[in-house]
């Protein structure tokens, strides 16, 4: 079967790898002129690392294993701790904090030369009873048996299928970046969340002496960006306990990334005929729950299996969409509520750490089709911290 994938992000590349491994002829068209390596680091939870293991992507030498999530109040008090290593033991697949560009590079390296065509902007999708295609801005077209729209939250494929409905803002924004870890920054294998009335500050050990950091705070789409983001963040968070003032002293305006929070309502069916969606094009969600890339990887895994020996291609695509919609909708609804960014110290302290850990492991299982299929034997992952 010939499959056209629109978009060469993590989800699109993973789908291409999975489909080629299962015998399909795949072409990926990407509007950017070169691989999309923007963004800092993110967490691959057990489901995401299991999918990468299944499609032959090793994470050896990348990032670091995450063992603990620690939640503190703005005044330095510890509110709770989740030992996410329990999920590694439960599912046989680790939690890894890794730079986005490193995952993109590993996925792209698994594809044969010429599969990804850069500088090819899709402008429309076409289909008839026997096939589907993509029209490109340069006047050329591509045709195949299936089109997969993996082209992000403002997807051209989604627009052609469902109209031009814009994603919905949640009222929050993330400012983020990477720093070289200091010797006194004791966050090895740890994800640190510091929450207060003004918002949330996070830090993750991303491996190779790198720390992923971010600030989340309320934001309106019509709000102008501050002239100095660092000065604005210092005004909001500078009175918090360490390590927040120390972090603020080390960031600068030139390296801060701006990520307003938007999301989609997740429909039961995403496509029509021989066209479907994947990743943010189907279920854009804020980064609050850390599930965007992981859900895209889950999509790729399920889609590749849905197309195995499919006699009725549209029916196989609708089956893929319905299977994934339930779990993606759950992840999206939690992320859109932005509860992780809200300061509720009494509630946090009422939940014992072992109970919080057990609930978190169960949560990861609820979100993953891959983990529902069984544990992973010998899953690849970053070296333990």
Structure description:
This protein has one domain: 3-Layer(bba) Sandwich (FAD/NAD(P)-binding domain). It is 33% helix and 26% strand. It has 13 helices and 18 strands. The strands form 4 sheets. The protein has a 7-stranded mixed sheet. The protein has a 5-stranded parallel sheet with strand order 8-2-1-12-18, sandwiched between helices. Helix 1 packs parallel to helix 4 and helix 3 (85-91) packs across helix 12 (353-366). The longest helix is centred in the C-terminal third of the chain and has 25 residues, at 313-337.
Distance between the termini: 43 Å
Strand content: 25-35%
**Average pLDDT reading:** 92
| CATH homologous superfamily heading | FAD/NAD(P)-binding domain
Class in CATH? Answer: Alpha Beta
Tally of discrete structural domains: 1
What fold name stands as the CATH topology? FAD/NAD(P)-binding domain
Helix-strand layout with pairing:
Layout (H helix, E strand, L loop, with lengths): L1 E5 L3 H12 L3 E6 L10 E4 L1 H9 L9 E2 L2 E6 L4 E5 L2 H7 L4 E4 H10 L6 E3 L3 E7 L2 E6 L4 E4 L1 E4 L6 H7 L5 E13 L9 E7 L2 E7 L4 E9 L10 H9 L6 H5 L8 E7 L11 E3 L2 H4 L8 H15 L6 H25 L7 H6 L2 H14 L2 H4 L13
Parallel strand pairs: 1-2, 1-12, 2-8, 5-14, 12-18
Antiparallel strand pairs: 3-7, 4-7, 5-6, 9-10, 10-11, 13-16, 13-17, 14-15, 15-16
Helix pairs in contact: 1-4, 1-9, 2-9, 3-12, 9-10
